[in-house]
Amino acid sequence: xxxxVGSGDSEGDEKPLSEINTTPLVDVxxxxxxxxxxxxxxxxxxxxxxxPKAANIPTQTKPENINLAVDRDGNVYWNTSLVTPxxxxxxxxxxxxxxxxxxxxxxxxxxxxxxxxxxxxxMCQRSGIQKVGFITEPDRGLR
Length: 143
Description:
Layout lengths: L22 H21 L22 E5 L5 E3 L2 E3 L1 H12 L7 E5 L5 H14 L4 E4 L8
Parallel strand pairs: 1-4, 4-5
Antiparallel strand pairs: 1-2, 2-3
């Protein structure tokens, strides 16, 4: 911290100090720098993972694929016919024993509750289905 000491004249020569005292500014900046240096490593800590790359692969529609649809009310359709959960499980169990096992393609309405999709996945899993995929429409705005 600097201080201006008079030149010896005691009266009338007092001039206003025209220099800006930067010491408090430097002190605050050093404190902020220390805080950022301490908190940045805490924020950036994460588990080292190699995330998969997304690829847009067109779906190959085969006649043996099973197309399931779920509407916004949670109703499940096998191709175009409405099925109850009991009938759906029986049909899936019948398909699961086929060699090679067909794929199940699930199409869900945009407003379908997550619970309905979860129930359908559990039914597929308990029936022994190995391959389940979700069918979506590509976003035209991303190109």
